[in-house]
Amino acid sequence: MLAIRPARPEDCGLLLAFVRELAEYEKAADEVTATEADFRRDGFGPRPRFEAAIAEWDGRPCGFVLWFYNYSTWAGRHGLYLEDLFVRPEYRGRGIGKALLVHLARLAAEQRCGRYQWQVLDWNTPSIRFYEALGARRLPEWITMRVEGPALTALAGR
User: Fold this and answer.
1) Is 90 exceeded by the pLDDT of residue 158?
2) Does the model's pTM come out above 0.85?
3) 131 catalytically annotated
């Protein structure tokens, strides 16, 4: 039986394990630098930067979802941004991923968000098909831009 519950501070190690498993699936395991302390500080400190939920199947952790809020100046409303969703391979095909997406859709609707969005890797065809079957649409006219590491430091003038 599936249960979805809010993540708690004592789940930081589990969140990190899920993130590492997701990164391995996405062929980027060596890119994870986050620590349990990072999750504790940024998710459960005085100014939380994200929220997360844990999916459990018969009481065993099987997946997670992590999100934060952004703001649309055009819509004049905040939006929900899904950063990560992951279901362990042995639990896939049981509707857990869909349940996590629906869980966030309900939060977004209850909080009157103007949008609910996320990104998916262009090679992840099964996920793209799954998301489109749920009513999500691609935004091909948008290109993701990122500044990080030394380039961020240089841009900041340090």
Assistant:
1) no
2) yes
3) yes
Domain boundaries, the chain: 2-155
Q: Which of 25, 69, 116, 131 is catalytic?
A: 131
Cα–Cα dist 157/124, whole Å:
37
Query: Mean of the pLDDT values across residues 83-105?
Result: 97
Please name every residue paired with 12 in a beta bridge, in sequence order, or none if there are none: none
Instruction: Say which CATH architecture domain 2-155 belongs to.
Output: 3-Layer(aba) Sandwich (3.40)
Q: Say which DSSP state 90 is in.
A: G
Structure tokens, 74: 């055009």
Strand 116-117, strand 77-87: pairing: parallel
d(CA 69, CA 47): 13
Mapping DSSP to helix (H, G, I), strand (E, B) and coil, where does residue 157 land?
coil
